[in-house]
Amino acid sequence: MDLARVALRAAKEQARARGDAVQQKRQARRGGVRSGARADGRDPLPLGAAINRLITERGWETPAAVGGVMGRWSQMVGPEVAQHCEPQRYDEDARVLSVLCDSTAWATQLRLLAPQLVARLNADLGPGTVRLIKVSGPGGPGRRYGPLRAPGSRGRGDTYG
Questions:
Q1: Which residues form the signal peptide (predicted)?
Q2: Predicted structure pTM score
């Protein structure tokens, strides 16, 4: 009698396994599993939730936070400094924020303010997010010297007509 129960149980499990396989084949023919009334990962999301999910899945939390700071730059440093100094890029590997200033005087001023600014950015973004602020001043015109230079031509710095 126990042998009959064991055989019946094995037959039911085999039938269930075959039924699952048949049901999966049917679903594949119909176009896959359908969502139905229950929520799953394929349901539509609001745009903000979808963007947050993408940022989390890709590991873009730090660059997105730094990008937010670049958008709020004038609030972080004040309107006067923001008028003359603008963030250019953030190097995530070295944790360096590059800032371009419109004059050497403002570049010097920002270099003096850099430690306080790093502390403020790390308080907002999390400890260790920004290690260094690289400040650049305005670049001068490039002067080319060499065999292709025409003698007597001063180029962009020429003031004689």
A1: none
A2: 0.54
